[in-house]
Amino acid sequence: MELKPLLANRLVFLYYIITLFAPVFGLIAVFFTAIYYGILEGMEIIPENTELPEPVLESLVFDWGLVVGSLAFLLILSRYRPFKTFPLKMGPKSDFLPLLLLASAYTFTLSVVTEWLLPSSYLEFVDKMNYPQTKIGWIALAIDAVFLAPMIEEVLFRGFLLSAYTKARGPRFALYAQAAIFGLIHIEPSTALAAFGFAWIAGRYMLARGTLLPLILIHALNNVWYVMNGYFETIHGTNVTVTSDLWGALSLALMVATLWLVHRRYPLPEFRPSAPGPVWSASLVLTVALSILIMALSVSSYFFE
Length: 305
Description:
Blueprint (H helix, E strand, L loop, with lengths): L4 H16 L1 H21 L11 H25 L3 H4 L7 H25 L2 H11 L4 H35 L1 H14 L4 H21 L3 H22 L10 H21 L16 H22 L2
Helix pairs in contact: 1-3, 1-7, 1-12, 2-3, 3-7, 5-9, 5-11, 7-8, 7-9, 7-10, 8-9
C-alpha cells in the first residue's frame, strides 16, 4: 500500500510517541509478571507476598515497556502491508558485504570520534541513560534492538517515509529529511549523529537499489554490536577509550572517507517531481519540536545531575 507523506508523518509521530511513553506499556509487563509471581506463590514455589525487586520493576516498566510498545506498533504497521509494497529481496549479492562494512565502519569510527571529542563523564552519563541496569532489562533491549526496531524502522523510514518524500519532493530532499528525522528521534546528540549517518547510508542504498532486506539485516547486526558493547561496559566494567589525538583524528578522517565511498557507490536516481507535494504537517512539526526539546532536556540534565 502506497503511503502519502502526511500519513507517513503521522506514523512516524505515533512511533515516536510510543517510544516516549514506553512506561505506560511497561505496566502491562508488570501486570503479567505479577500474575506469574502469583502462580508461583500458589504453587508454593516462592514465599507468599513476594515483591518484585525495584530494579526488576524498573526494567519491566522501561525496557519491557518498549518491547510491548514496539509489538503494538508493528501490528499497526502491518495493516499497510509493507512487505507487499517493499518485497523482502536481497538485491545484488555483491552489495551486501560492502554495505555492511561501510555501515559498520561509520558506526565504529563515529564511536571513536565521540570518545575523542566528548568528556568521559558525559559518555558515562549517556550509558547510564540508555542502557538497562538489570539482566532482565538487557534481554528486553536485545529483543527490541536486534529484532523489532530494525524491521520497524527500516520499513517506516527507509520504506514508507523515504518513498513518500521522494515522490513528493525528489530523492535528495527525501534522503536528508528522513535521515534528519531519524536522527532527531534518538534523543541524545551523539546517538542522534550515529542514527543520522546510518539513515543517510541506508537511504542512499534504498534509493539506488530499492530493497529493504539488506538494510534490516545490517541494522540488526549493527545493533548487536551496540548491545554487546553496552553490556560489557556496564555489567563487566570494560570500556575501550581513545588514548591519543592521532587515533581520534585518524578515525574522523576514516569516517569522512566512509561517507564519501557511500556517496560514490550508491548514486541518487535522477528524479524530479513534476508537481511537488506537501510534506510538512502538524504531526511532523510535533515530532521535530518534541525531539529537539527532549534532546535539550537530556543534555541539560547532565549539567544539573
